[in-house]
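USER:
Make up one protein:

ASSISTANT:
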Amino acid sequence: MSRLLFYLGLICLVGSGGPSAAIAQDTPAAAVAPVPPGLSAGKKVFLSNGGGDSGLFPHPFSGNQQRGYDSFYAAMTRWGRYELVNDPAEADLVFELHLIAPSGPANADKSKGASDPLPMFRLVIFDRKTHYALWALTTAIERAALQKTHDRNFDDAVNTLIANLKVLVTQKAGQMP
């Protein structure tokens, strides 16, 4: 009798779509977290150099610890969307850029779900008045075998970060990024 009840319960569970279907029915399909309006309303930005982790310069990347900050600053200037200011007190938003060299498994077995983490840029956007983080964007820097490819991938990651930022700030408040 207990086997019969077990199989009947299993058939009912599978027939209903399983537990995930029950959870999905409770979540409205249109539930999208809003983009803070300050991201698109801001006019002046202070760009903060959050630093770069050690071990990335001069290898695998050319230059020094300030390369990411300099590249991002130049890309922001070319974009022209925000006025870049030298004093955070004059800014509406603070963009804090970090170059991260995460530690992790070396040559891990990827079939077990672990992999070597890639260096990445992390941009945290703060409301200057409240000091609250409004948003964060992260872009990985792909691996390469050659120095020039490492450097190109570094530059590509900066450009991807700017492209993702452009998409984010052009969203209407409440629209999915």
Q: What stands out?
A: The first strand starts at residue 44 and ends at 52.
